[in-house]
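Our platform keeps sequence and structure together, in a single record for each protein. Nothing more is needed to write down the fold, since each code stands for a local backbone conformation. An entry from our holdings is shown next, in its original layout:
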Amino acid sequence: MFTGIVEELGEVVAVEDLGDASRFRLRGPLVTDDAKHGDSIAVNGVCLTVVETADGQFTADVMAETLKRSSLGALVPGARVNLERPMQLGGRLGGHLVQGHVDGTGTILERTPAEHWELVKISLPTGIARYVVEKGSITVDGISLTVVDAADDHFTVSLIPTTLALTTLGIKQVGDPVNLEVDVVAKYVERMLGHEGRDGHDTKQKEDVQ
């Protein structure tokens, strides 16, 4: 479980094609300081398992399903990534409860800068639009953000200078993909109430990327 508070802006060092998967080597001295084989680290909001660590870097295997359903498949050496270690019991929940299971990908549609902040408009897949509400929480590339407004096909978020300086949302451009994870509480409530989504599909059939 994560909080959506990015600890470090890391970098993709290498990507190895394994056929039905890829092995990523990433640089992140802070998050690897106490990491070991089998630990979890969120990379752009996707929970990955550490294979090995050395010299401030770690490797992780990413299966084809994850590559297909997240933006990790588009990463190349030199790309910057948001990194976060799992939340520790007893620690502060600075953002909101984040599983690291991507629900879908969106695309940055607009960036509107202001004097001290920036409004970003992001496309919203139909299948998860029902979970996104004004002033609710959403995770964008692993960053816990508050929704400014929400429509059936897009939503907006406001980014403060710290977010712009310390995460990938400060450097991503219009047209770039982002990973989205909605508030898990909304999905559990819907399941318990037995509701179907707006697209008519029973949410019980939904799978999350791990």
